[in-house]
Specification:
The chain is α+β, with helices and mostly antiparallel strands. The protein is built from three helices and four strands, in the order αββαββα.
Length: about 110
């Protein structure tokens, strides 16, 4: 790690790409550049169902809703990694778009 920044660079590249793609798709993401990405859904049932459907597709996410976060602040959290490649990210992004559309979770952009 001290000799190269390759993994760190890939992590930041993955983070920027994932955040940009989901934002462009119409998801509200809390601002930041860190690889823990909170996708705001606000509704607890939608967050739970959305997370369950992603997990069924092999995309590991965590749904957070009351009492973990305040009522009305439900979200899904994604943890990006340098181990993810472009195919992993695109597969996750496609699933987010499809499931987000199904649940009416996409903003009109």
């Amino acid at each position: 790690i001290n000799e190269t920044t390759e993994l760190r660079d890939k992590l930041w590249s993955n983070t920027r790409y994932f955040r940009q793609q989901l934002t462009e798709a119409g998801f509200e993401i809390q601002e930041g550049d860190h690889p823990i990405v909170p996708i705001m859904l606000y509704d607890a049932k939608i967050a739970k169902d959305f997370a369950d459907e992603l997990i069924e597709e092999g995309i590991y996410v965590i749904g957070f809703y009351y009492p973990v976060v305040p009522k009305g602040q439900a979200r899904i959290r994604v943890q990006l990694s340098a181990a993810h490649d472009q195919e992993h990210l695109d597969r996750a992004i496609d699933a987010f778009k499809r499931i987000g559309e199904k649940h009416g979770a996409l903003a009109k952009v």
